[in-house]
TrEMBL record:
<dbReference type="InterPro" id="IPR024756">
    <property type="entry name" value="PCDO_beta_N"/>
</dbReference>
<dbReference type="Pfam" id="PF12391">
    <property type="entry name" value="PCDO_beta_N"/>
</dbReference>
<dbReference type="InterPro" id="IPR015889">
    <property type="entry name" value="Intradiol_dOase_core"/>
</dbReference>
<dbReference type="InterPro" id="IPR050770">
    <property type="entry name" value="Intradiol_RC_Dioxygenase"/>
</dbReference>
<feature type="domain" description="Intradiol ring-cleavage dioxygenases">
    <location>
        <begin position="80"/>
        <end position="108"/>
    </location>
</feature>
<dbReference type="GO" id="GO:0018578">
    <property type="term" value="F:protocatechuate 3,4-dioxygenase activity"/>
</dbReference>
<protein>
    <submittedName>
        <fullName>Protocatechuate 3,4-dioxygenase subunit beta</fullName>
        <ecNumber>1.13.11.3</ecNumber>
    </submittedName>
</protein>
<keyword id="KW-0223">Dioxygenase</keyword>
<comment type="similarity">
    <text>Belongs to the intradiol ring-cleavage dioxygenase family.</text>
</comment>
<dbReference type="Pfam" id="PF00775">
    <property type="entry name" value="Dioxygenase_C"/>
</dbReference>
<dbReference type="InterPro" id="IPR000627">
    <property type="entry name" value="Intradiol_dOase_C"/>
</dbReference>
<dbReference type="InterPro" id="IPR012785">
    <property type="entry name" value="Protocat_dOase_b"/>
</dbReference>
<keyword id="KW-0560">Oxidoreductase</keyword>
<dbReference type="GO" id="GO:0008199">
    <property type="term" value="F:ferric iron binding"/>
</dbReference>
<feature type="region of interest" description="Disordered">
    <location>
        <begin position="1"/>
        <end position="28"/>
    </location>
</feature>
<dbReference type="GO" id="GO:0019619">
    <property type="term" value="P:3,4-dihydroxybenzoate catabolic process"/>
</dbReference>
Length: 242
């Protein structure tokens, strides 16, 4: 958002290409006509407002939230944490962060996911939280499995977690994916490859954070989300950020 309160237009020249033959469905989805620029509406710029009353105590714990604590999900327990920051490194407090992911076998709880890895009856795959006053967030979850997808002859998505950061208005919502340090499938993924700049892609790869792991319980991964500026996180829908 600009200093005048208006949303900044997307900078198309730095956007990952909309159509890439190695990412087959992007070709049929990509616009073939010149884009039209439309003014945002007041409701897109002023709402919604989220409060802490929206968030339940287990909403950021994907190991337990699907069963409301009755039974844990199967898989390697991990903690994913970080901060949401603006382009000057200032924290973005009280903003809604949502995640969704496949289970440990690489299967989503979604009617269109027909991969034959089993569903985990104790894992839903969605979580949400609000950043604290210092822009910090955290999730407890399980490490998602890699999964195959119908693209080229044998394409697999690397292990990844989808992230949404809502900001303070519908028009500010940003979506991206977090990958895991050391995953050899990242370099082979046509979707990750739509981020042409390797240093930008590296910012989507969360490093192992042993210091914030808990012995005999979980490993930690650190994923800071920078909304704008030179060190910004690459977003699928708006890489230049808010
Ligand atoms: Fe995915």
């Amino acid at each position: 958002m600009t200093g005048t309160g208006r949303l900044m237009p997307r900078r198309r020249e730095v956007h990952p290409v909309a159509s890439d033959p190695d990412y087959k469905t992007s070709v049929s989805r990509a616009p073939t006509w010149p884009l039209l620029s439309m003014e945002s509406t007041p409701s897109e710029e002023t709402g919604p407002r989220f409060g802490h009353s929206l968030i339940g105590p287990l909403d950021n714990n994907l190991i337990l939230n699907f069963t409301q604590g009755q039974a844990p999900a199967v898989g390697e327990r991990i903690r994913v944490h970080g901060r949401v920051l603006d382009e000057t490194g200032r924290p973005v407090p009280h903003t809604l962060v949502e995640i969704w992911q496949a289970n440990a076998g690489g299967r989503y709880r979604h009617v269109k996911d027909t991969y034959f890895a089993p569903l985990d009856p104790n894992f839903g795959g969605c979580g949400r939280t609000l950043t604290d006053g210092e822009g910090r967030y955290e999730f407890l979850t399980i490490r998602p499995g890699a999964y195959p997808w119908p693209n080229r002859a044998n394409d697999w998505r690397p292990m990844h977690i989808h992230f949404s950061v809502f900001g303070h208005a519908f028009g500010q919502r940003l979506i991206t994916q977090m990958y895991f340090e050391g995953d050899p499938l990242i370099a082979r993924c046509p979707i990750a490859a739509t981020v042409r700049d390797r240093s930008q892609l590296d910012r989507l790869v969360a490093p192992l954070d042993l210091q914030n792991s808990r012995p005999m319980d979980y490993l930690a991964y650190k994923f800071d989300i920078v909304l704008r500026g030179r060190r910004q996180t690459m977003f699928e829908n708006k890489p230049q950020g808010m």
